[in-house]
Predict the 3D structure of the following.
Amino acid sequence: MSARQAGRSSATAPYRAADAFDLERIRADFPILRQQVHGKPLVYLDNAASSQMPQPVIDRLVHYQSAQHANIHRGVHTLSALATAEYEAARCKLQKFLNAAEAREVIFTSGTTDAINLVMHGYGRKFIRAGDEIILTTLEHHANIVPWQMLAEETGAKIRVVPMMDTGELCLDSYEKLFNARTRIVGVTHVSNALGSINPVKLMIALAHAHGVPVLVDGAQAVPHMPVDVQDLDCDFYAFSGHKLCGPTGIGVLYGKAKWLESMQPFKGGGDMILSVSFERTVYNTIPQKFEAGTPPIAAAIGLGAAVDYLSTIGLAAIARHEHELLQHATERLRALPGVRLVGTARHKAAVLSFVLDGVHPHDVGTLLDQEGIAVRTGHHCAQPVMTRLNLAATVRASFAFYNSHAEVDALVAGVRAVQEVFA
Ligand code: PLP
């Protein structure tokens, strides 16, 4: 039985570490993969946009909603204490997942975008003034561009951009030259969502720190694909979304070093983020509550905790290995097709394959592949500066997860050939 067919079988128990990367067992944990689309088995290759959820995470959400739900932090009753304990336990799971020094350095947000906006408001509005400089890179997702542009407009700060080579790698020589006495923060994506390039963030952080500048890493496309250790990276902030990590939508994380989080101003005001309120004066809560105003997405945070448990059971190193093989296989097979041009050929890449076909608009490719049950993304991938740099309006993007198989890559290649025949 092929791995692709195996995905539609059902397993009796969820994946265990002892299963040693058994793809069949892993796929059986994802009920959505058993679906047909247009009468064909679903081949889900849009994981960079959002990943799918395994049964243990779905079960955890159902259990929370059916047996544990109450509002947290405020109640003296049993259910409230239970929900609070589960929510805080999820924070500890995320701390361990990232190897953060302390649980209070993990702030639950609604996603990467929200986390970056938190840094912009909390750090940027406090420490960045007219004439100060913010370093970003050509490879950023709009989520790590637009908030900083809003701040620049408000304060008169300047944005400096690290250029990119044709391969999709950043020009590190130019990066170093961008620093000066007015540089206040660096924002860099760990992995490009449009091209899959893995940026040398550890090196970039060390260089920024040599200039006394903190670094925000957008980890939305990195945490699902490789082990991330925020202490080893020594990043000041690290942002990501739960829905790209086999967790629910509406939840994300901002990791921040305690020294920064403590010195920053709150982003949102309201309940839970205060110690006392009077009309004369409000005293803010300590971190992490200072940044979690109002009722947080309790169920989603607990679901994200279950998702990182699930991923950790499989092991991020094993996930990275499998995805690397998929990427290599897909790269070799697509590169061999006449009329296909791969976009983004960095030496270090993760799980993303962008390409264009001669004479066929990417949207037509996506629409025709969908008819074959193959889900890919087409467009500018919320990374228009990358597209502009490469003189492209759009690409087709296949993005892999650990539950994808070589047979699915072959299905993609066959689908691309079929599209070429339609337009021949
Ligand atoms: N940063 C990167 C690199 C992304 O790929 C994405 C989403 O695709 C985001 C930020 C925004 O994530 P969200 O929409 O979950 O906030």
Remarks:
- The longest strand covers residues 183-189.
